[in-house]
Write a structure and sequence with these properties.
about 150 residues; alpha/beta; Ribose 5-phosphate Isomerase B, Chain: A; five-stranded parallel beta sheet; 6 helices; about 45% helix; about 15% strand; binds D-ribose
Length: about 150
C-alpha cells in the first residue's frame, strides 16, 4: 500500500510523526511536503499534490494535516475523484471510511494529539468500505462533480 501525505507548516510535526507510524506498518509513504516548518507552507498546493495522487494511480490514499484540517479538506475536495474527510475523532473516521469510503483523510494538528491522529489513521486504514447501499450515494457524488465541473 502507498499513501501520499502532506501538511502546511502547522501540520509539519504531525506529518513527520505519521510518516514513521506508517513506515512501521510497512506502508510506503510519498511525502508531498513541506520539508520544514521554519517557514509558512500554503495548504492549497500541498492538498492538490496529495489529492491528485490519491485520486489517481500514484497512491492508494492520502493524508493531509493542517492546524484544523479544514483548509486541507476544502482544497482536496476540489480535485476530481477525491472524497476528503475531516476526521478529528474516531467515530467520524470509522464512518467516513465504512459509509463514504473517503480516499483522503484530513486531521488538525492543533485540535488532536499525535496519538489520536495515529488511532484515527489506523481506523481509516483498517475499516472496510461497506459497499451495498452506499455505492449509489458515491455514484451521486461523482455525478454532482461532473455536473458542476467547469463552473456550471
Ligand atoms: C494555519 O495558520 C492555519 O490556518 C491552517 O493550518 C489551517 O488550520 C487551515 O485550515
Amino acid at each position: 500500500m502507498k499513501i501520499a501525505i502532506g501538511s502546511d507548516h502547522a501540520g509539519y510535526a504531525m506529518k513527520e510523526g505519521l510518516k514513521k507510524f506508517l513506515a512501521n506498518r510497512s506502508i510506503e509513504v510519498v511525502d508531498c511536503g513541506p520539508d520544514t516548518d521554519a517557514k509558512p507552507a500554503e495548504y492549497v498546493p500541498i492538498a492538490k499534490a496529495v489529492a491528485e495522487k490519491a485520486a489517481g494511480a500514484e497512491a492508494d490514499g492520502g493524508i493531509l494535516i493542517c492546524g484544523t484540517g479544514m483548509g486541507m479538506s476544502i482544497a482536496a475536495n476540489k480535485v476530481p475523484g477525491v472524497r476528503a474527510g475531516l476526521c478529528n475523532e474516531l467515530f467520524t473516521a470509522k464512518y467516513a471510511k465504512s459509509d463514504v469510503n473517503i480516499n483522503v483523510l484530513c486531521m488538525g494538528s492543533r485540535v488532536i494529539s499525535q496519538r489520536l491522529a495515529e488511532e484515527i489513521t489506523t481506523l481509516w486504514l483498517d475499516t472496510p468500505f461497506t459497499g451495498g447501499r452506499f455505492i449509489p450515494r458515491l455514484q451521486q457524488l461523482s455525478e454532482l462533480e461532473a455536473e458542476t465541473r467547469d463552473g456550471r
